[in-house]
């Protein structure tokens, strides 16, 4: 018994199959050496432990492996033999696939008392299967580009693959050709023979070669050679056949002609015994019929010897031919004399091909007495064979050329060509990848898709992978791929699945997308520009009409104040109304500045007074969360600026500062005197008033700071900003000869500085305006033209108060009619913008008749493009004192007045 047990243990321990014995508790009681090697555990470590604890304690993802999911353990309670595949965990932590068989061990009472489990490591087998699939994929790709027809069968003989050349040649579809459908393209007379050749070879698993006629796509049948060999796996498993079919129609026709020629020769030999030769070894005498002599270029009546034979063989074939003859006549070898050689005609020098066969005749003493045989002229057949060989060589060269062409396309294509795996890694790439993405091929092949693709595109890539897994072709799919320099390149892909991989062609469309993005930005900028233009036109029109409304109001209030109408209370109310009207006039001027209806009019501006005057408006604009702080130097000189434009710039900067402080903060506006000793960029050498607008807001990064003064550039989002505030302020400073500078840091705030040149003029506000010149000596007839009745009436009252007689006209055409009827005014006071003819055109029209006529143009806004600089003008709304001052200035001007020259120009 002990001897039997030892032998049994020796057999089990020497088995290459891992064997485990489990008791009735399903705990390990025995492991052979193969099981220890398979699991990494020694028997002592596994004893009295469930097999689940040894090989199934966790899944590959690290999660616990529930006992209920272990199929091996079901063999015991179910009393059934179980087999299948599992994933085991080695002691060192790596996972590996196994094939197992688990069988219950039954006691004498038929109840299970344990389990025997056999397991086999499938790692190498799985790797071989994967390599085989990869090899087959590459074979299919190569076969589809081969110039010959190729096919593959499975072990049962079922045709599982035919390459593209087969379908192009026969015109069959895959559904028609696969399986045994390829026989349908075989000529009916050859079909059974071709099928039998394949079936017999498949049964014996040997190579075969058969010729038959194959139907072309045109309907004609052409001769073809079908040659194939069986395939075997590394373990000797029979896998089926792989074969190729070559069109040999031209060669077959040539061979048929050759066969006919040989048949004629055979018949001729049978009738006339031509081609038989006989050599007497003892005497050296030879029997050569005329036909054989002709093969050696010898006339029929010329006797021959062995020397004629030896000397007639081509030098390149002589050694092998004579050696074959000697071997046939050698009593120890007695081989068949069977050679093909060339001859050189003794008399004509012609090279011919001869196929000769013969045997030696030996006597009782093993002496060769004669050598008898036949010879055939095979020159024509050899020519065909040589031609066929040349065709084969040409075919090989063509295959090599097409392969080289494919490789050249792969190497030289500017597109990204690749073979990609569904495992998330590239399998092969062309050089364009390195050029486009700036990484070497080894790095790219080592990186997964997720590492290369932009994170925002991962979901889209996953969706495309699922489509490819379903066999769908994907075109014009775009995602972003990482470049070595940290940028992202947009790639447009065409993807075609093929087995375990898919083929990809990608084109870099980054520049195209950037151009499209720039176009969208330009279109958005154009829309903003059009919106601003429309707002400007609307604002300008409203401001102009508001000026017309303010003119009679301010005029009436001014008259009431000057007349001292009412008591102290009434005068206080009138004074308050005048102040409100003046503020309204200032608001209209700002609206006109926003609408670009006010030309840039540089003057000496008191920046201190302007900033203090804007304090209330800035405070109301920025809101209660922003604290506005003013810091203006006491000795601030006058600055060269346009007050209206400067106010608008200061307001825009204040709004920008408010938006940069969404949770509140401090807006600090300061004005100081500063000098620049050396030019700094756009800031030239000189003396300046530096107006600073600083906030404690979010600040700007370097990229935003670099583009801050670009027109229409805004970080506030669509509908929250025009992107023109800083660009307008920058343009204003540049036109005045100054500059705009910006200092900003993220999280700290922004400081915008307007550098305004110190003015060399004296500010109007600081000069003591002398009383209007006496107009008593200037009184006369005034032609007043305005299409607004209330404005015209208010202005007429002011003129009459100044002592003028007034003739009113509601249009330029009516004024011209008055003059034509004999009215001769001493002064023309006209509105500028009226229906029909404008005030400027009216002035020059009347000067054709009255060349010395003084003119005062009154307008709600002054546009340089519309108003002639030669004509004095007064801006609405105005008081009687403003009108009197303008008239006094006009009347004090030297004569003669401006007139229109003969050629239509304007002169003084």
Automatic annotation (TrEMBL):
Q: Where is the Response regulatory domain?
A: 781-891
Is Iron among the key words of this record? no
Stretch forming the signal peptide:
none
Output the superkingdom of the source species: Bacteria
Q: Start and end of every Histidine kinase domain?
A: 541-760
Give the reaction(s) catalysed: ATP + protein L-histidine = ADP + protein N-phospho-L-histidine
User: What NCBIfam families does UniProt report for this protein, alphabetically?
Assistant: sensory_box
Name this protein carries in UniProt:
histidine kinase
Q: Which organism is it from?
A: Sphingomonas hominis
